Amino acid sequence: MVLLDGKKVSNDIKxxxxxxxxxxxxxxxxxxxxxxxxxxxxxxxxxxxxxxxxACERVGFESTMVRMKHTTSEIExxxxxxxxxxxxxxxGFIIQLPLPPQINTQKVLMAVDPSKDVDGFxxxxxxxxxxxxxxxxxxxxxxxxxxxxRYDVDTKGKHTVVIGRSHxxxxxxxxxxxxxxxxxxxxxxxxxxxxxxxxxIISQADIVISALGVPNFLKAEMVRDDAVIIDVGITRVxxxxxxxxxxxxxxxxxxxVSKKASFITPVPGGVGPxxxxxxxxxxxxxxxxxxx
Length: 292
Description:
Elements: E1 2-3, H1 6-26, E2 33-39, H2 43-59, E3 62-68, H3 74-86, E4 92-95, H4 105-111, H5 123-130, H6 139-150, E5 159-163, H7 170-176, E6 187-191, H8 198-203, E7 207-210, E8 228-231, E9 235-238, E10 246-249, H9 254-257, E11 263-264, H10 271-291
Parallel strand pairs: 1-11, 2-3, 2-4, 5-6, 5-7, 7-8, 8-11
Antiparallel strand pairs: 9-10
Helix pairs in contact: 1-10, 6-10
C-alpha cells in the first residue's frame, strides 16, 4: 500500500510556485494577487480562508481578504464582485461558500469574471473543462489529478467509480477521469444517493473517488484488492478525547480499507492540502494569462 501524501506533494507544489514568483520579483514583474471574499462569520470558512492567506504569504503572492457582514445583501455582494472584476491589481479571486440564505449562490458565481475565476466554478470554465480546453480546473479535482500524476498511478483503461455528484468534486471528476490523456482515459461510473446496487458497482472499481461526506462509508468489504482509493470526505466527528473536542474523519474506513488498497489518501493530509496548492497554481496561471 502506497500512501498518497497530499501534505508532502502540496508543499512540493508551493516550493515550485515560490521559485516562479522569485523569478518574477527578480525581473521586476508583478507577482500574482489572490483575493478571497467571505460573507459572515462561519468558523470553518474563516479558518479555510485564513489558511489560503498564509499559503499566499509562503509562496510570495499578494493577498486580500474581503470580509462582509452576514447581513450583506445580494446587491452589495454583486457590487463588490464588480469592483474585483475591474481591479487590474487582482489576478484571481474566490467567493467562499456557503453564502447566507438571502444570497443566490449561482447568481453570485455567474457574476465572477471567468478570467479571474480561480475556483473554476463559472459555467464558462466548467464548459471549457468538459470540452478538454485550457481553463481553470476546480481546485479539489485538480489536486486529485496532480496526486495521481505525481505518484504515477495508472488510470488508462481502468474503471473509476465516483461517489457523489456535486458540481465542486463529483461531476468534474467524472469528466476529468474520462478525458483523453493522463490522468484520464478511464471508464467512469458516477454514483449518488439514488444509485441502485452501489456496493456492487464499487466492488468492480479499480479506482474509487469518494466525495460523499458520510464518515467511514466505504468499508473494506466494498472494495476489490489493489484498488486505488481517493477519499475527499471531510467530516467533523465529536470526540471528547480529542484536544479540540472533535476529529476529522473521511468517507473511508482507512484502517481496514488501507490493508486492501494499492494507493490510498489519508484524512487529514490527503486531498485537503492539495486543494489550496492547486488554487495557488490556478492563480499563477491567471497571472500569466493576464500578462499575455
